[in-house]
Amino acid sequence: MRRPLLLAGVLVAIGAVVATINGVVDPKDEFYSGAPLKAALDSNCLLADDVVRARSYPKFKRDLFRRRQTTTVVFDSSARTRRGVNLGFPGFGAETLLREMRFLERATPEGKQLSIYVVTNVSWFDPQVPSGVFQKSLASKAGYLLSPWTLASSLDLMRRSRTLAFSGWEKERVGGACVVDRGSPYPAWHADGTLTPARKSGESSAAQAFAWNRLSSVDAALSIAATRGWHVVGLSPLSPRWETYERELRALFAKHGYRWRIRRMLA
Questions:
Q1: I want to staple 222 with a disulfide (CB 3.0 to 4.6 A). Which of 58, 128, 148, 256 is the partner?
Q2: Is 10 exposed, middle or buried (0-12, 13-18, 19+ CB in 10 A)?
């Protein structure tokens, strides 16, 4: 009886050590940390995308909003629009808009006015384009912490750079610019939430159907803004043109007293 219990105890201890190492080093940036963003903002540096990673985009942009204390917000999935602070990111869509509008509702004191620019895209309503899921399950995170492949990556990073392994980032100058990164300085995020170089937003050019159910998420998001009395402007890239998309978005924004229009670009 003692031997099985001893073996179980050894396995638990090994698992705990592996999980601790993987959690501290976090070689794939599974868990978001605000320390690199703070360092970048304090030093007027860019923040490399390899410090954030796609899975942490929502947490990163929410952290940026809290730190910048802005009253002008842009949701642009291409993350390239320069006005206020851009809280959009690649993969942003209708459902994401609702989640992030709910965040703004929680994070913004009553009576504080916001100006919000929502840059929609035809890909939001193409059922062939994923709506964007950024949250990972607890089981998935536990598997990452206990994985021997994660441990191999952790040990490799520890051998290459203890600074990157234990602080998770470093500050360097690249082409005259200061960048907080984890080995790859570009692409990188500006303090206004734009990405350089900007990534394409994944527009659909020939959608075969319209994802009508996604309209409800945009409707609910606009309802939050209208209830709080926030100023909202809806915009969209010029092409590709899609009659159903244009008609429904224009009507939906108008329902809440807002304007939606097509523009080639937003400065």
A1: 256
A2: exposed
For the sheet with 188-189, list strands across it: 170-174, 177-181, 46-48, 188-189, 195-196
Per-residue burial over 219-239, b if 16 or more Cβ lie within 10 Å, else e, is eebbebbeebebebbbbbbee
Ramachandran assignment for 70, one of left (phi > 0), alpha (psi -120 to 50 degrees), beta (any other): beta
Give CA separation, 248 vs 212, 218, 232, in Å.
9, 11, 17
For 90, the token pair is 């690649």
Report in angstroms the alpha-carbon separations of 80 from 136, 146, 202, 234.
26, 37, 13, 16
pTM over the 0.90 mark: no
N residues, the chain: 267
Rounded CA gap, 37 and 45, in Å? 9
Residue type for position 20: T
User: Strands, E, within 96-139: which ranges?
Assistant: 115-119
